[in-house]
């Protein structure tokens, strides 16, 4: 089979074209073929492929873009367009640890801005900048989806809950000293940016359940519901949910007209197949407006009468 006839996702990429040596290229190619095999179309594998090359280089390099384009039969421009759209893909060397501080609404109110400012001053860097030793890249994050633990900081997308400026500073200091740092939930220690990028490419490291899973603030509602016997239909403690009530057969039906004719979920929706059920179906000229009907096109409106109506209306006001 010639190179031209090989399907996308199975085509080899030469080391001279990517800048990778033969050993690295062979390893990346084997991983890439595993990723592509997950999808019905090779180009759908681009997102995890970008994480794969980022796990090799620490960012999406020119070599990584060329590699992805060659494997997936895309142009480098197409790959670059995706790589520059998402903030998790870095276009310059990233630090070993990405420290992201949530400064969205709730975390900001709870002190997220103060945490970011403290780290920025302490590390001497701003948003999306990296320390000189290459250890930490600092970011502002738009919601870490952990509002019940605000303010939240993430290190390589591992959660550090209910932080303070002092505790956050202690975390980054330990990271720069090479110490094992444990997140609040998840793995027992934070992995490197390259290691996390490989996990995001779909190659699990088996560490997700090493530490604590969902914490008390997240599960409190479920626990209270079980203790009190509440169900989804309950109106409150001791209440009876609407779904548990038996409808009164003698009660008049609520609503009329178009609302009653609305198809239920899963019913026929096509206008071509729908039977005439509403007033608008049987009498298209019917209007639900309380205003006077608009005169027909062939009827002439008396301007004087219109002025009189207008004057009367203003007088009544």
From TrEMBL:
UniProt region (Disordered), positions on chain: 206-317
GO molecular function term, any single one: metal ion binding
EC numbers for this chain: 1.6.5.9
One Pfam entry name: 2Fe-2S_thioredx
Domain of life: Bacteria
Name listed for the protein in its UniProt record: NADH-quinone oxidoreductase subunit NuoE
Keywords assigned: 2Fe-2S, Iron, Iron-sulfur, Metal-binding, Oxidoreductase
Swiss-Prot/TrEMBL cofactor(s): [2Fe-2S] cluster
Biased composition (Low complexity): 280-296, 303-317
Family to which the UniProt record says this protein belongs: Belongs to the complex I 24 kDa subunit family.
Tagged with keyword Cytoplasm: no
NCBIfam families recorded: nuoE_fam, PRK07539.1-1
């Amino acid at each position: 089979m010639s190179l031209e006839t090989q399907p996308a996702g199975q085509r080899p990429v030469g080391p001279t074209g990517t800048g990778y040596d033969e050993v690295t290229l062979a390893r990346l190619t084997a991983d890439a073929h595993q990723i592509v095999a997950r999808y019905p179309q090779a180009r759908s594998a681009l997102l995890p492929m970008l994480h794969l090359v980022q796990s090799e280089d620490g960012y999406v390099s020119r070599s990584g873009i060329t590699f992805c384009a060659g494997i997936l039969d895309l142009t480098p421009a197409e790959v670059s367009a995706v790589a520059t759209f998402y903030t998790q893909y870095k276009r310059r060397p990233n630090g070993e640890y990405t420290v992201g501080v949530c400064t969205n609404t709730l975390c900001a109110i709870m002190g997220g801005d103060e945490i970011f400012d403290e780290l920025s001053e302490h590390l001497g860097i701003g948003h999306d900048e990296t320390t000189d030793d290459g250890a930490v890249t600092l970011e502002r994050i738009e919601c870490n989806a952990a509002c019940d633990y605000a303010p939240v900081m993430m290190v390589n997308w591992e959660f550090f809950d209910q932080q303070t400026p002092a505790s956050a500073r202690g975390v980054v200091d330990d990271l720069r000293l090479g110490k094992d740092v444990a997140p609040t939930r998840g793995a027992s220690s934070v992995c490197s940016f390259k290691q996390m990028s490989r996990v995001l490419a779909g190659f699990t490291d088996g560490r997700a359940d090493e530490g604590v899973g969902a914490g008390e603030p997240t599960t409190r509602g479920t626990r209270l519901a079980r203790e009190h016997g509440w169900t989804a239909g309950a109106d409150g403690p001791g209440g009876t949910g609407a779904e548990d009530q038996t409808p009164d057969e003698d009660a008049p039906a609520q609503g009329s007209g178009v609302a009653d004719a609305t198809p239920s979920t899963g019913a026929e929706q096509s206008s071509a197949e729908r039977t005439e059920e509403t007033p608008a179906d049987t009498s298209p000229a019917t209007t639900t407006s309380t205003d006077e009907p608009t005169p027909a096109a062939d009827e002439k409106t008396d301007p004087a009468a219109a002025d009189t109506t207008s004057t009367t209306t203003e007088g009544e006001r």
